[in-house]
Structure formats: C-alpha cells, structure tokens
Amino acid sequence: MTEVVLIEGVRTAVGRRKGALSNVRSDELAAVVLDELVKRANVNKEDVEDVILGCVTQKGEQAGNVARTAALIAGFPIHVPGVTIDRQCGASQQAVHFASQAIASGDMDIVIAGGVESMTREPMFSNVGEVKPSPKLTEKYEIINQGLSSERMVKKWELTREELDQYASESHKRAISAISNGHFEKEIVPVQVEREDGTVESFSVDEGPRAGSTPEVLGGLKTVFDENGVITAGNASQMSDGASAVLLMSREKADELGLKPKARIVARSVVGSDPTLMLTGPIEATRSVLEKAGLKIEDIDTYEVNEAFAQVPLAWLNDIGADPEKLNPDGGAIALGHPLGATGTKLLVTMMNRLERTGGKYGLLAICEGMGMANATIIERI
Can you tell me which residues form the catalytic site (predicted)? Predict the structure, then answer.
C-alpha cells in the first residue's frame, strides 16, 4: 500500500474550562488551526482533498458538521469537503486513521485530520440531555459513568489513592518543565482572544498546569464519584478548550511537491473493550498495534497514553511492562487538559515534535474512549 507521511502538525494552547478561550467559537478556533497548518506545510488549500475533524459534543456551535464550517471560515475553496466524527476521546486520532487509510488505499493524496472541542461553550453531555441508555443496552451491559468505571478499575488493578495523586503531581511537574523549556512553542499557533473589556490578547501558553499540585495538596481533595473512593478532580483530566490538526500525504505526493515529511504512519489499531470498565482499551489496542507493526514495546522511544484518569496510564504501564520514563514525559491531560475532540491530534503533534527534538525513532499513541473503545497509533520519525 501507499506509504502515508505526516508533513506538519499544529495546535492551539489549551484553555481551561471558562478560561482564556471562553469567548472563542469552536468553528472559528478550528479555522485558526486549519489556516496555520497549510501555511506551515506550504501547501495550497485547494489541493487538500478532505478535512476530517473529531468533535464529541456536536451541539450548538459544534453542530452542523464543524469540519466543513471551519474549513470555509479558514478560506478553503468550496470544493474541499469536510466531515466530523465522534470516536469519543479518540475522535481526532480516529480522524488520523481514516485519513491515512484513504491515502494508503490510493483514494486521496492530501488530507487534513484534527479535532476541536470547547467544553466551555458546549459542555460535555449537553448533546445527550436527559436521554437515558436504551433498556435493550442496559439489559446486556451495566452502563455507568466514567468516574465510577474509574473507581472499579482502580480496585481491579489494586492501585492506591497515593499512587494516583503521585502520578497526577508528576504530570503537572513534567508539564511545567516542558513549558519552561519551550517544548511546546513550535507546535502552538497563538489565538487572538478578545476580553470582556474589548482588549485583544494573544493566547499561546497552556493554562492547565499548576505549580502547587503536590501529592500533599492533591491528597486533600474530596472524591467526586464515591465518597469512599479515590477519584478526585486532581487525579482526573481537566475539562478544556482547544483545537489541533495534522496534514497527511502520500509519500509520492510529498516527493512531487518537494516537501520533507516529519514522520510516517507505521501502524494503526482500534479495539472495543468492556463498556462497564470502559477505560481499559489502550492496553489491548497497544498490543494490537505493536503486533501489526512487528515491534515490541522496548522498540518504542516515547509513548503518549491519554491521562483521562490517573489509573489509565498506570494500569497500561503495569500490563504492557513499559518504561515509565518514556510515558507522557511532557505531562498529560491531568495537567495540560483534555479538549475531547482535539486531544488525539494534540498528543500526536506533541509526540511528533518530541521525536524530532530528541532524535527518537518510534512513538506510540493510545487513547481510551467512552463506552469501551481505544485507538493506538505508531509513527516513525523521518
């Protein structure tokens, strides 16, 4: 099949819920990223064959196919289509998979994949409203919220509150270090934000990391889902606003245009997992993608496993036997935030730039998803 390469990637800085990006519409935020992406890649907008964006809460400003509206706002010509998909937290990672599959099959040569989510302007679950799961579903499976799933997962893997809070504290520490060392500067496009008083500011630094997030401070937070449990706001991901995207291309087209790819897609996987525990999928998705790639975990130089809750990467580490120093070395969603539909390509962009910065060869990305699913992707730096 055709080799699929990553030419460029870009993201916004991530805003806290009700933070710096509160006054920015989702479609306009995604348009900023789309416009910047093709500029950095030195590709003409009219040559893009599809724009695939992930978005979970497809309501309000995020409804009506935000991929299409964002592309039009960004000045893409009308012949460039767009489609919006929802694979829950892995939506933009799945967008990368769909885009790369279209290119690998020979259907397309140049595709943008990304995602957007404003959890401020379109709150999580607001698209669901008061609708309850179908009785035909609940007859077959126990459907509970992710917080309760997390509590059960913690018990199954015999993790402690102290382990979760220590991991969360380290996420903040790593994120603060990454920001201070300029690790994210290359991948972030500044967003012009209008404040309540009419002044305009440039937003370009992730808002989430907090220097005071020590294990002792986190240990004092109340549990959220079970008063006798361990899951708190401190050891779970932050609700956030943001957008991200990558430009994928066939290797032949990149050569034809004289472009130097940053990485290639080595392998992809997507799995279903227990819809009650819900968050365990990255383990099997990782095993699957490693097998497809013909690699072992020891071959991978860095991994991003989304920190939906602290026990997710901890359980993954335990079962995969991975090196904790290679896991989320620049911090994760606990510190940096989790703008649902944008997280997959946000993490991919960060990992791609890290491989370039460190000289590493292989990177692995895995994300757990609502209702029990997960995607995993392996890339190789070029």
Answer: 89, 338, 368
Structure letter (DSSP) for residue 128: T
Side chain identity at 149, as an amino acid letter? Answer: S
What is the 8-class DSSP label of residue 221?
Answer: S
Catalytic residue among 55, 172, 183, 368: 368
| Distances, alpha carbon 191 to alpha carbons 33, 50, 61, 202, in Å | 9, 24, 18, 6
DSSP string, 3-21: -EEEEEEEEPPPEETTSTT
| Rounded CA separation 182/364 (Å) | 22
Q: 């990454």: which residue's tokens?
A: 178
Q: Which of 286, 358, 298, 354 is nearest to 322 (CA)?
A: 298
* pLDDT reading at 195 higher than 90: no
Give the integer Cα–Cα distance in Å for 345 and 351: 10
Residue 338 bears catalytic tag: yes
Query: Is residue 333 very low, low, confident or very high in pLDDT (cuts 50, 70, 90)?
Result: very high
368 has catalytic annotation: yes
Of the candidates 89, 97, 172, 183, the residue annotated as catalytic is 89
Contact in structure between 18 and 188 (CB atoms under 8 Å):
no
**Residues 59-98: pLDDT tens digits?**
999 999 999 999 999 999 999 999 999 999 999 999 999 9
Q: Rounded distance, CA 365 to CA 378, Å?
A: 6
Place of tokens 């580490």: 317
pLDDT (average), residues 118-137? 96
pTM: 0.98
Residue 178 has pLDDT above 90, yes or no: yes
CB neighbourhood size of 222 (10 A): 8
**SS3 call for 364:** strand
What residue type is assigned to position 270 of the chain?
V
Q: Of 63, 19, 12, 86, nearest to 238 (Cα)?
A: 19
How far is residue 103's CA from residue 325's CA, in Å, rounded to a whole number? 34
In sequence order, the 6+-apart residues with CB closer than 8 A to the CB of 223 are 229, 230, 231, 232
Query: 323 vs 134, 312, 376, CA distance in Å?
Result: 41, 15, 17
Q: How far apart are CA 345 and CA 77, in angstroms?
A: 24
Q: What is the mean pLDDT of the chain?
A: 97
**Residue 194 host element (H or E):** strand 191-194
